[in-house]
Design a protein that fits this description.
Length: 591
Amino acid sequence: MLLGAALVLLVLGGAGPASAHAALRSTDPGDGSVLQRAPRHVTLTFTESVGLRDDSFRVLDPGGHRVRTGEAGRADGRSDTARVTLPGRLGEGTYTVAWRVVSADSHPVSGAFTFSVGKPSASTAPVDPGPTENPLTATLHKIARYLAHLAAALLIGTAAFVALCRPPDTAPLRRPLVASWWTLLAATVALLLLRAPYEAGTGPSAVLDVSALGDTATTRPGALLLLRLALLVPVALFLTRTSRTARRRVPTPVPAAVGAALAVGLALTWSAAEHASAGIQVPLAVTSSVLHLLATAVWLGGLVALLVTLRGTTDVATVTRFSRVALASVTVLAVTGVYQSWRGLGSWQALTGTTYGRLLLAKLAAVAVLLAAAAVSRRWTAALVDPGTAVRERKRAPERVPERVGGPPGGGEATPEPSGPVPPPGTVGEAHRRGLRRSVLAEAGVAAVVLGITTVLTSTVPGRAAAEAARTAPAGGVLPASVTTIPFEIGASGRGTVQITLDPGRTGDNAVQAVVFGPDGSLAAVPELRLSFTLPDQDVGPIDAALVDRGGYWSANSLTLPLPGTWTMRTTVRVSEIDQVSESRRIRIER
């Protein structure tokens, strides 16, 4: 079950663009602006609060050398801003600002922009905001997050099963409790160690950097992971005492309030670090998220506990209690899930037009299958509680029975008889127990897949935030998603190149920047540069990018590519008054 769900996680959350909740709203100075005097500060404003890193800003001068700046801070104390102080005197030319921050839901986001003092430089330092993420580090981080979710659900759900359903024999449940505690401990330690390289976009070898680990401990995500580790100590003591109480059959159990408080504390370490902690209605969202996580754990973790107990002697009272607990959990999940979906999506269009919405639809489909399996389990539970229920249902259902030719004796109607014997009162039919075990096993398998999709959802930009990011994309701080270099011949002069950046490289509005380099690699001025896009499969285009010469580079603020697919990008460079060269490249545009 675990391996299958992990495979789903890797398929859904493997290679692909990094997701971040924060979007850059504006920059000061503005991207591409030309200032008469050098600014004293560089200020970024985001759509939500962001965390700062030691390397949140890198400012490069026209020659590509790093400018000495002050430490990253805030503008007017606002948590949704990042500001760095520049030196007193900046020379004339174009400066590049590369930035990297951590959004409120713990995901890193980066980008770059330029501004000029006096006039633009003849050559500009390459825009390099650094890697968005390291694939291996990102994959390990996702696996650790999934294992943490799975272990927490099993730990809280099994403990709740013992407290609420009161099985007569708790010995078989000690193993899943111990396994889930150790798994949660190991996954949390892994997340803490991977936090620094995950934020920096570096390889997993950076976990050995002790100073980076110390820096992680001072951030909100790192502090919440440390809090989770600290809570696991009293959780272990609580479970140990509960186990001893159950073995000795002491009439006064450990107060349930202690266990509930520990469960709420563990759930808060997720809710305060993910989507609920950013955006609108944060206090209500965090409360809803905690209830959603706890209801998920009680239901899905309780399923595994029930499955373990069904391997032994079936206790009808335990099964009945869990049926009631599961129904209450599903009710809480429905209410909190509707609220969180509304808060995350923001519009009906986002349900099918964003990755978050499509993942949410996949989760809803999986939950529907889970509820269908749960309905079957409830019918088996009813049959266990009252074995005559199945017989009465068979009597109500139309059933064909053999009749002698000519109809029943006396011309009356035949009365269908039960197809099997009725189990004696007070006993449990073996067929009913096997049926319940199979349906609960199916529930647990689908539940693991639901947890996998949920883990991917928590690292995917919500639809509401995606729409806001799209509206603020012209600010120029989003990392370019598509960079294409096209070589072209300049006759006897040699071979030049055109570097074309398409931001964000997806359907809808895009910003285009194109830079022409000469044979020696320096910036080259050309009389004209044209760019067009064609989608042959759909007979769309050509769409002209309408590039404008910005003095050192060419750009277009808005280029609309309406459909996903493999587009043909045709570049025409006029190298003199009478000569021009055209080259084409195929690029993939995602939805």
